[in-house]
Amino acid sequence: MERHLCQRDPLKRLRTAGDQPRADLDTSWDPVAAWYKRWVGKEGSEYHRKLAIPAVLDLLDLRPGETLLDIGCGTGVLSTHLPPQISYIGVDLSPRLIAYARAVHKRAGRFLVGDARKLQQVPGLDRSIADAAVFLLSLQDMGPPEPVLAGAAWAVKETGRIVALMFHPCFRVPRQSGWGWDDQRKLQYRRVDSYLSPMAVPVRPVARGQPGAIKSFHAPLQDYVNGLAKLGLVIDRLVEIPAYPGVKRTGPNAKAENRANSEIPLFLGLRARRLRPS
After folding, report:
1. pTM
2. CATH code for the domain defined by 30-274
3. 172, 165 in Cβ contact below 8 A?
């Protein structure tokens, strides 16, 4: 999952030792579960609490009695922020993260181990089980979007919706984008080296010499929009979320950094619903 949020740039991973890797879960966060749960805590990072979770809840617009499927739930941080009377189901490929979620959020709902690319095969899930499905900073860690979106569409009701919040694919391409500094203009700018080419980027969020690796999957925005359209889903709302003023910088270049972080979005949030015949 795209859970690698750190204080300076969310695409730079914190470097802390993780657990032993498991080769059979090549897109799972099981190898770095210990690092992640230590860092994210019970209620999420600063970026979760101030930016990502408020945006997701606004897009979901949950009503009492509805069921929410959290795909790529990790440690279950979203479950602690839900309004009352929401039935919650969290799914993640990492057994270690699910074990932690069950221990910490005992009364939040159900937590299931399962592959988001094969939701139809996850025990405990059925077609149209949820009123809404959500990807909270997880979609870009699950491989090509097509099978993952298809699983979400299978799991939600005909009147349901799918919400995804991700790092903005136009500006936050792993290893292919970053901040630059123009000393003459005293200007921070965003550099993008590659965008249209889908890619799987190996990432090591742990310290040098320690085991543990993940993959981050980049796809251009058109792949998400067209992938949803092929499933009969249309985007009825899209938001682009800057880091500033939710998260503010300090230091000698703070003014330029905060300005850049107010203009160049960190996250992209979208909501999709099924097309209805006129």
Report:
1. 0.88
2. 3.40.50.150
3. no
